[in-house]
Amino acid sequence: MTPAQIIALVRDAAIVAALSFILWYVHRADVNSIAVADFKAVQKQVETNAKTISQWHQEAQDAEIKRQQDMDRVSSSIASQHAPIVLRVPPSSSTVPGNPPSPSGGSACTGGSTEGPGVDLRPQINAFESKYEEALGQCRAVLASWPH
């Protein structure tokens, strides 16, 4: 056998080995494809996830309805408060200094006294209650819509 024949024989053996490896790899890849049982398990998981997401959406809608009902209840409760809250300065030896008169000649506000109508704080308190009850209602709605 000549050296050229030996080299040709080694080359042909390498080609046959490479083709055998390629055929074995393609056959093995077919065996490792997704099994029907795996595919069914994935479908079942997707269905379970869809049900869970649907449940979360329902909980979020229920939380929003509950928040709106709470806000309506709180708003009507706050709106029904009509009794004035009058701020009067308690009697003391010193009076509360008033504001200085304006340069345009307007009258100066005098300090508070125990006599007279005083200042009604009901509108400011109602606005304060409305503002923070709305914020608390939104917090409760977020917590209620959180997935369980």
Protein architecture, described:
By secondary structure, the protein is an all-alpha fold. The protein has a domain at 53-87 and 118-148. The chain has helices at 3-31, 36-79, 122-145; strands at residues 86-87, 119-120. A two-stranded antiparallel ribbon has the order 1-2. Helix 2 packs antiparallel against helix 3 (122-145). The chain is rod-shaped, with a radius of gyration of 42 Å. The two termini are 80 Å apart. 1% of the residues are buried.
Topology:
Blueprint lengths: L2 H29 L4 H44 L6 E2 L31 E2 L1 H24 L3
Antiparallel strand pairs: 1-2
Q: How many E-type strands?
A: 2
Given helix and strand content, the structural type is mainly alpha
Terminal CA distance reads: 80 Å
- Helicity range: 55-70%
Strand order of the largest sheet: 1-2
Elements, N to C (H/E): HHEEH
**Average of pLDDT:** 79
Report the biggest beta sheet as strand number plus sense, adding barrel if it closes: 2 strands, antiparallel
- Please indicate the percent range of residues in DSSP E strands (runs of 2 or more): under 5%
Number of helical segments with 4 or more residues: 3
Residue stretches low in confidence (pLDDT < 50, at least 5 long) are none
- Rg computed from alpha carbons, rounded to a whole number of angstroms: 42 Å
The shape, in one word, is: rod-shaped
How would you summarize what this structure contains?
The protein is mainly α and 148 residues long. The chain contains 3 helices and 2 strands; from the N terminus they run H-H-E-E-H.
Name some characteristics of this structure.
mainly alpha; two-stranded antiparallel sheet; about 65% helix; rod-shaped
